[in-house]
Amino acid sequence: MKRKCICDICNCGRHRCxxxxxxxxxxxxxxxxxxxxxxxxxxxxxxxxxxxxxxKQDYQADRxxxxxTTTFKADYIPYEVSRRPGRLQEEYKPSSGHIDLGTxxxxxxxxxxxxxxxxxxxxxxTHVTGGKxxxxxxxxxxxxxxxxxxxxxxxxxxSYHPSSSKFANSTTFQDDFAPKSLVPRESFKxxxxxxxxxxxxxxxxxxxxxYIAHPLESKFVKPKEEYKPSSQAFEDxxxxxxxxxxxxxxxxxxxxPDFSRVVTDARFNSSTEFRDRFQxxxxxxxxxxxxxxxxxxxxxxxxSTTSHCDYVxxxxxxxVPIRPIxxxxxxxxxxxxxxxxxxxxxxxxxxxxxxxxxxxxxTKPSGKFDSLTTFKAHFTPHDIHPSMSCKPLNVALRSxxxxxxxxxxxxxxxxxxxxxxxxxxxxxxxxxxxxADHRGHRYFRMLSSPAGxxxxxxxxxxxxKEVAVVS
Length: 471
Known about the structure:
Blueprint: E1 3-5, H1 6-9, H2 36-40, H3 71-75, H4 104-108, H5 138-142, H6 172-176, H7 206-210, H8 239-243, H9 273-277, H10 306-310, H11 340-344, H12 374-378, H13 408-412, E2 431-436, E3 442-446, H14 450-462
Antiparallel strand pairs: 1-3, 2-3
């Protein structure tokens, strides 16, 4: 009989033989579908990696031969085009004989002899007499010159006459324009002042005569109204609820199978590939290189160089400058910094003219501002009645008819019986344990009678023993 291991008996894909990580591998043609990675890191639960919905970017090359003909190649057939032969320029040869330079202009317009044009205007003849011409024109006869005496100029004599007296250090500007105090210019604007009258002021107006002062009532204080909920039911019926009443019935039941949670008492193996392969190695501190202490050499150090040894010092006199030495003239007398400009033009104390402000005619009122307006004084508050809502009541419509909750899923869904994997038992029904190899595979031998296998499987399924599912 053919023997099978747990890997072959399992029909759900969740059971396997435990591999021995230290087992020696033998050279055989039999392939092992289980790996050390799957043995160390098994899958837990029903959590599988999601399958990628991304299409594979595989290039599907066409095995047929590519036809490189295009519409352009099919319609436009190439022709043999030969180069156009160039025209050779002939050598210039001057023609023999005389060149006729006659033109149509010379033939049509012949030259004629033209005489000078004689002037029709008579020549001007001047009559010159030896006597003196004594004439008097009408302008001179009518408009005779008047005897006007020359007006003496009013310009003063500006000829310079040097003064014999001593210079008084005063200029004509200082003598003619004496300093005066700054006086504001007199305003010709009439004073904006009210004219007082001796008669008593008549302050009666139409408002004062017609207006009757009434005693003011105390200011109305609106009491704060307390919120009183309405005793009537809230009408929340909308057009949607009114028109779309729906079909009354029971709540639809879910056809989803019950979720059976897999519970196991086995300890969770938290080992991962990273933890197993990348272990923490002891790290030592880096060695610090210590510099060797400086030890001065013994003996005297010769500091002589080739420049010191070969160089010969010569006595050279310094260069004498040709430029004469400048000797400044110094005087013990104090410096006199007074000039005619400082003595004649002295600074005057000029003050800025103060701003001329106009006196305010209106006086600012004193006292507390009364913020009472005509609207506040004459406004009478009225009681506000809330408008009645015309919104229909939001009451769900109820019906005694049963709710039809049948769906296509319920009508077409066929529940199937869950099959138990025979590899989930310690000893699979219908098999007898034979041996275990060095890899960890446990081999079982099938019983001869298939009826006994089915009976043993049914008995084990009806047993109250808890089935341990390896996830």
